[in-house]
Q: What sequence folds into this?
């Protein structure tokens, strides 16, 4: 009986300790996010001094080349660069860098409502866990800047008008190709994505496409770029802006991902030029 009692006591203690440790880890994670949000803005979540202690050349490139030169290039606005960068960080699940770039985005004119929509949009294109990590990193930034629910989009909104003829063609093509492979995916592609998410007015169609293209490049999903880049350019993204997106993406998603994407961009640009000339 004593042995059984001791075993039960040890088991109870172990469960209690596990719950306590889990709780501590959650609080520690949230505490880290809050601490990052409250750090003085430098090149990232790390101060310039922090980077110099490990990689002085990296700090030099960060301060001079990236933040000093690349961000100042004229063919893409500071606001658009912020949107592209946030999309990369969320798509690649890199929340530790988000507080600095969220603050920079807000300073560059990206609205809290738009940030909320970017996170929501990327839940579908990069996965729910990545979006939830972005929520954890964004919450303390919003709290510090006193951003409230009044500045955020409602869950239910009046959707933008649907181009039914165009979307019916898209839906038919997807159904013919994949309806028997994954009918659930086909259903939600139409019902949840293109006839709901994409029609939410809190993020302009051009910007929503720009977020999607950035996430695809950052994730190495080149097969999906053609459709979404054309959609972005149909929504007024210019070739020069799309080109400059690649420059921004090279620094935040890496050269290999951008070089993999460049042939797709080149092909889209060429076909649109020929198409425009034929009209």
A:
């Amino acid at each position: 009986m004593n042995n059984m009692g001791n075993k039960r006591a040890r088991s109870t203690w172990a469960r209690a300790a596990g719950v306590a440790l889990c709780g501590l880890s959650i609080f520690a994670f949230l505490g880290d996010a809050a601490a990052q949000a409250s750090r003085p803005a430098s090149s990232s979540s790390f101060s310039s001094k922090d980077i110099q202690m490990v990689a002085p050349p990296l700090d030099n490139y960060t301060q001079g080349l990236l933040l000093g030169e690349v961000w100042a290039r004229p063919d893409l606005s500071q606001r658009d660069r912020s949107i592209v960068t946030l999309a990369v960080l969320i798509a690649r699940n890199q929340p530790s860098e988000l507080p600095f770039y969220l603050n920079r985005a807000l300073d560059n004119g990206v609205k809290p409502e738009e940030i909320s929509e970017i996170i929501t949009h990327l839940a579908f294109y990069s996965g729910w866990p990545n979006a939830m990590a972005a929520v954890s990193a964004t919450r303390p930034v919003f709290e510090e800047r006193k951003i409230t629910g009044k500045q955020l989009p409602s869950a239910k909104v009046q959707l933008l008008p649907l181009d039914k003829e165009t979307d019916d063609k898209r839906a038919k093509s997807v159904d013919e190709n994949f309806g028997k492979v994954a009918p659930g995916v086909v259903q939600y592609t139409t019902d949840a994505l293109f006839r709901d998410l994409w029609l939410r007015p809190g993020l302009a169609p051009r910007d929503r496409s720009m977020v999607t293209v950035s996430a695809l490049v950052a994730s190495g999903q080149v097969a999906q770029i053609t459709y979404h880049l054309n959609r972005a350019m149909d929504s007024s993204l210019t070739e020069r802006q799309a080109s400059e997106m690649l420059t921004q993406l090279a620094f935040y998603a890496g050269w290999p991902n951008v070089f993999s994407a460049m042939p797709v961009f080149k092909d889209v640009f060429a076909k649109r030029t020929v198409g425009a000339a034929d009209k």
Q: What stands out?
A: The radius of gyration is 22 Å.
